[in-house]
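Re: Re: token formats

Sure, here are both.
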Amino acid sequence: MRQVVVNDLVFGNGRMKICVPVCAQTRAAAVEAVREIRGTPAALIEWRLDYFTEDILTAAPAVLEAAGELPLLCTFRTKAEGGEREIDPAAYFALNEALGALGVPMLDLELALCLAHEARAKQAIDALHARGAVLVLSSHDFEKTPPRDALVERYRQMEALGGDLPKIAVMPQSQRDVMVLLSAMTEASAACGPLIGISMGELGKLTRVRGGAFGSVMTFASKGKASAPGQIDAETLASML
């Protein structure tokens, strides 16, 4: 499998890497949460910017410093994809570019926004790659699990747009839906390399533990507030892995 390297963290080699999100509203709370996560088995930290109520760019250097050697993944999750608030598309891409300029090593860009504003997205993706940032292109469906072929095509779209780590999170309505995602991940990873696949909720917890056998290189765990249905406590997940 092709490998993606961030700092000393290698995606596509060994077991899935545990990522723990920070959903704090203030700089002080975010820094404290990041420091706490460094004491867990987390391999990287996701800073959920849509929860943050202060100026993001002012706070970013302190959050980066607190993360230390752990890579920081910055994510502004829009309401349409299960996030806390909306953002103007122009401001969304400008924010991600500014974070890349500050040295943030990983950023999440939503596939739907990239497809809706393809020229602007390509500009941002090219600029972020030029700075050495690793990009997670993501797609979330909190209602259902699309058919297998649609999921495979979605992974391929993300890779074609410049996603280093394509990510799909879907909601299963049955155990069969979980297997649909795992099958799509197996096919897509053979063509696209490292990817992330999550089936949410109680039914999908299997993917958070065993997704690595089907091509997923990252799994999300909780430390305090969970950012998605079905997240497992970081310590518990590490022991399960």
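Second one below.
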Amino acid sequence: LNYSGIDSIVDNKVEYHRIVVPRGGEYNLKLADGTDVWMFADSEIRFPTRFKGNKREVYLEGEAYFEVEKDSLHPFIVKTKLAHIHVLGTSFNVNATDSSCVTTLVEGCVRMKKDDKDSVIIVPGEQASIMVGKEFNVAVVDTRYSIAWKENKFAFRDVGLKNILNEVMSWYGQTVYIRDSDLEKIRYTTIVTKYPSIERVLDILAAVGDFRYIKDDKGVIIIIKR
């Protein structure tokens, strides 16, 4: 969906649109100012068809990756329930829920604000996060794991098998059953392409884990490899 090609900054009343991306889906949006937005599954964005006044504001619930068009006179602001992310021109990922907000910076510089008195500035390769009732936390991270989804890949960094399978199965619209609870303790740090076939993804995970799988008409059953 492309909103560019019309006047991006106006002073009169503008119309807001909303895009909701369901589970198992992704969406690419170009805003009126030329900013590219990649929406992750189970996410929602609200934005004006044209930006009004001296700033560019959008509202996000869920996860999205932004490549913001530079405009020093009109700062770009991503508003979430817990924090606002202020930028001029940069590339970054935001994952926002009711209880947390995580911003990972790939390029440029952003300020993440909770209110006028509490804010942090991060540089490329850093991740700022905040949870309900807590202060900001800033850490150096491998940004590949935060933006892999944009490149049609699953990315997991020290994640348990149960959480991994829930994400993978949600993407392919499948149901998973883990027969042996000990398997849930297996942890992965890996990046896997979202192949058209779910079997290909499971084969890769099973190759480095101590499990095998069986598919039937009810879903996928995970069992210990013997």
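The first helix runs from residue 144 to 147. The mean pLDDT is 89.
- S.
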